[in-house]
Amino acid sequence: MRVKKAIILSAGFGKRLNPLTLTNPKPLLKIKDKTLLENTIDILIEFGIEKIWINTHYFAKKIKSYIGKKNFNCSINVTEEKDNILNTGGGVLNISRNFFNEPFFVINPDTIWSKDYLNEFEIIEEMYFSKKLKNILLVVSYKKSFDKNLKGDFKLEKNFLFRNNIGNNKYIYTGLQLMNNEIFRGYKIEPFSINSVWDKLIIKNQLYGFESQQNFLHITNLEVYKKLNN
If you average pLDDT over residues 205-223, what whole number do you get? Predict the structure, then answer.
């Protein structure tokens, strides 16, 4: 594998899972006796990732302590956004600013990643290098979502992603993307959403996507979490 670095986004408050997240961060919630964070780390290691960064804010010390007690077979760095949460875009830029032009995965632990995704990780990696991309997102049809209340984020045509204002966005972002720092050119380390970066890329016809064929299991709220845990 050519990509060796990954960022796991773990700074959010997880308010839609209250009261469970009043005492624990969302990444440390368990599905079938395994935390969402451990499940995500395991799939990255299985793919061949050697260095992982985890951004934190809410219950940062609990996540850092958890990682310290585990014996994962890779290098893991936990960074804390102490004063203000930097949101998805600022959080990624804060960590990756030292990666130069090296590609890296950004992944959300909210999705229940399984080994069935590994082939799609490989395809995304191959597309990234063969087409000399700046980024590519793994998306899935809304029909494959366990949570039927989830609405689509994008329209997908020949591996290009768009947004349609008339409600024809049938593809959901799975929580995995491969990118490099070029897409953050002109941005500062401050709170901003990765969506603002995607929207600028869409205007330039430069936001790429690949369709996952996996059933999309995503912890969106307390009701969905309880159903998936049963």
Answer: 97
Is the predicted pLDDT of residue 121 greater than 80, yes or no?
yes
Domains of the chain from N-terminus onward: 5-229 (3.90.550.10)
pTM of the model: 0.96
- Adjacent-strand bridge partners of 139: 173, 211
**H helix intervals, 70-117:** 87-96
Give Cα separations from 198 to 52, 96, 110, 194 (angstroms): 23, 17, 20, 6
Report the first-to-last Cα separation within the chain, whole angstroms. 35
Residue type, 126: E
Instruction: Check if the beta carbon of residue 35 is closer than 8 Å to that of residue 44.
Output: no
What pLDDT score was predicted for residue 210? 98
> What is the CB neighbour count within 10 angstroms for residue 77?
12
Any residues with CB less than 8 A from the CB of 217 and at least 6 apart, and which? 111, 112, 146, 228
